[in-house]
Amino acid sequence: MHPSRPLGSPNVPNDPSTTAELLTAAKALQRHTPVLRELGQLFAEAGHELYLVGGSVRDALLQRPLTDLDFTTDARPDRVQEVVRRWADGLWDTGIEFGTVGVGKGSERLEITTFRADAYDRVTRNPEVRFGDSLADDLVRRDFTVNAMAVRITADGLGEFHDPLGGLAAIRERMLDTPSTPEVSFGDDPLRMLRAARFVSQLGFDVAPRVRDAMTRMAGELGRITVERVAAELDKTMLGDDPVAGVDLIVQTGLGEVVLPEVGGMRMAIDEHHQHKDVYQHSLTVLQQAIDLEGAGGPDLVLRWAALLHDIGKPATRKHESDGGVSFHHHEVVGAKMTRKRMRALKYSKQMVDDVSQLVYLHLRFHGYGDGKWTDSAVRRYVTDAGPLLERLHKLVRADCTTRNKRRAARLRASYDDLEHRIAELAAKEDLQRVRPDLDGNEIMRILDIPAGPQVGKAWQYLKELRLDRGPLEHDEAVEELQKWWNAQQ
Asked: Where is the HD/PDEase domain (predicted)?
């Protein structure tokens, strides 16, 4: 990457455009220079090669933010630890069985991995770890050519740029291709097919035709991958700059049949307004519109998942009406159950499952307000049911308006503006975020002279429903209502 030196392998042209790209990448890496020089000197003095590799080089060329730095070396893991032990602020060996040593130096987080030349059993994705003897062996086993570039690290910092597999050309073309044939690459590690979708989302790249063909033919191989790893890749795809493109690649290649069959299944359900090709395309539009509403808070994984999955209950509830229309009654209820089942199968956290499924369940609630006649009680229940998800629900409902009818879209926006105004008005008078009974459990036990138990819970729930219906009550009024309820139970 030093323009005054040979640029690595012969297939890297020493032309002005390449030199300019490498200078730009070197500038992106400039703030890491002290660590690079110190590390380069340590390995040189120990008689070992060291290269910056993979995503670190790719992102420097793309001028993307760099977080962790990845290196590869001919030194074996125990030797790497020896070389850096006195220099590093911290060492981690969680990946050492795969040849990776984690290193902390100040605010820098580094991973140093021994050259690899793995073999795979083609049953699991776990390799038989074999250490390689050359950089070329290491680069050819990587997932995509854009991640198969390296820069020699020396005591002076950045050295020669190595690109034996055409990664720089692939970056210029914004194209994902595999170093070896896709069949070999994906057969070794099927998770790479999902990683392709992630890079499409994160980097705005396309996939080479042969890669897309292999993904389509080999989609079933994803069954070898643990659901935890699948979920991690799906989340990275959803958090990218263009998750719509990533999700669409997953669905169109058949990967979705293995990991998210409900999403591709929406292609069978025609939108009842006939404004979209199908419910699937509508859902992708809602996902994009939800992203557009995220604001300065950055990517919101819960909102994005809810936007993608909000209509997955439609195929199961589709009904052809006598007037020629199509209805999807209670699809939000069915969809919430389907969302919960799928996310549990992918082993998401309980909080994540609860939040996404609750948003799916609530996404149609607003449409009962379409005539602008919601009562205060209904507004309270809307806010209470949403709880901490209220702001996300606002965004999801607004994103779900995809009609091309401008008058109808304006009417829906105005109705939701009015609902938010009503919420704000009530919130100014009442604590809508914490709607609780006017009497607590201790007061209920004292007034009714009963011990702790199920009856106290029933009384508490009755008073909460009363609070939702009528708003805050004076203490004496709440006591009177409680006693009326209690007497009716006897």
From this structure: 275-412
